[in-house]
Write a structure and sequence with these properties.
Length: about 375
């Protein structure tokens, strides 16, 4: 049978929506293989009559640097996959839902559990939660697969073991190879069996071509916009929408040392936030490091000129920029002035010079080309 995915990919090439990229070939081939496996395993009418669930198929894990076309490949696969019950979402959104379901199971009485989960016995929430997920989707496609939260790390193995047992097939994109997931995390040795499971149940494919398609957008538009006037604001927001593509701003909530930091304008590895929301509130180094590690591209808008009267905000801004610099995050800024004019004089201006130098470096073409 002809591949619907291959036909869709070729059509996009022909219309110029994408360009031919040999680095994507292995990922495309793995997804075409899975397309055929899913088609062959789709339950027939007799199996459906007896409510027989299909078996989980060997999935695909696409990993590589930002902007190489991993999400594009997965999205094209999702649109053409021969499966009715399927879902595509960001991994962090999915895990937020899992934690809410676990909370509902633990807090619910027998009646509430029966209503929500169709069952009520037992103390372990993982089987009923997996049942809910499997009932909703036979195919799960995750963008931005990344594990930084110990609460996620400790349940993933049992959760996905239960999902695979219930016939769920997984496709994921990530900036990290499986062996790099939850690197240096607390109790990581307990997470290692999940990594082994991923490698056993999914084809792990590197998509690491030399061409970065998101970088093309940043190079064309620039990453520093000043002054903060209507024209620059329109350009800044247009670049944000362009970088999002088909994604929606689903938001993200980071849990840091027992506190929650909500970022409403986020999608996968992209986040947009105002200076006030990050630097005029009681956030500290741990918060900024968590943001820098969670997002590969940060849009920061409405950065004002700083003075000694705003020295505490300036201090937080310095820590934020240091965190983004150290993690090599791509940073797009809408500011009132150029970096060397943001803190022009007064107490604290001399100390700010290092940050201004870093901001100049982070807007350079060399920086943008270097970071992943």
């Amino acid at each position: 049978m002809a591949s619907a995915l291959q036909a869709a990919y070729d059509a996009r090439l022909a219309e110029g929506a994408i360009r031919a990229d040999p680095a994507q070939a292995a990922g495309l081939a793995a997804l075409i293989r899975l397309e055929a496996d899913l088609e062959a395993s789709e339950p027939g009418k007799l199996a459906a009559l007896f409510n027989r669930k299909p078996e989980s198929q060997r999935g695909v894990y696409l990993w590589g640097p930002v902007g190489r076309g991993k999400s594009m490949l997965m999205d094209q696969f999702f649109e053409t996959a021969p499966v009715k019950a399927k879902r595509r979402t960001h991994f962090h959104v999915f895990m937020g839902e899992i934690h809410r379901l676990i909370g509902e199971w633990r807090a619910g009485d027998a009646a509430a559990r029966k209503t929500r989960f169709g069952q009520h016995r037992g103390d372990d929430p993982i089987p009923p939660v997996a049942e809910v997920v499997a009932d909703q989707a036979r195919l799960l496609c995750f963008d931005e697969f990344q594990v930084t939260d110990i609460a996620d790390a400790m349940i993933l193995g049992r959760l996905f073991d239960a999902l695979f047992a219930r016939g769920v097939t997984l496709v994921a994109t990530s900036n990290r190879a499986p062996d790099q997931l939850y690197k240096d995390g607390i109790n990581r040795q307990l997470f290692l069996p999940f990594i082994d499971m991923l490698k056993a149940r999914l084809d792990v494919v590197s998509v690491a071509g030399g061409h970065d398609y998101r970088l093309d957008r940043l190079r064309a538009a620039g990453s520093w916009f000043s002054p903060n006037d209507p024209d620059n604001e329109r350009t800044f927001l247009a670049l944000w929408r362009d970088m999002l593509g088909k994604e929606e701003e689903v938001g993200a909530t980071l849990e840091i040392l027992g506190r929650k930091v909500h970022l409403p304008h986020a999608a996968g590895g992209l986040v947009r936030a105002g200076f006030t929301s990050l630097c005029s509130v009681a956030l500290g180094p741990n918060d900024y490091v968590a943001i820098a590690e969670r997002f590969h591209t940060v849009f920061l808008q409405d950065v004002p000129k700083l003075t000694p009267a705003r020295r505490e905000e300036a201090r937080r801004f310095v820590i934020l920029i240091d965190a983004l610099y150290e993690t090599r995050a791509r940073t797009v800024i809408l500011a009132e002035a150029e970096p060397d004019k943001l803190y022009p004089s007064g107490d604290g201006a001399f100390e700010f010079e290092r940050t201004a130098s870093r901001l100049q470096e982070m807007r350079s073409a060399d920086w943008l080309a270097e970071v992943d």
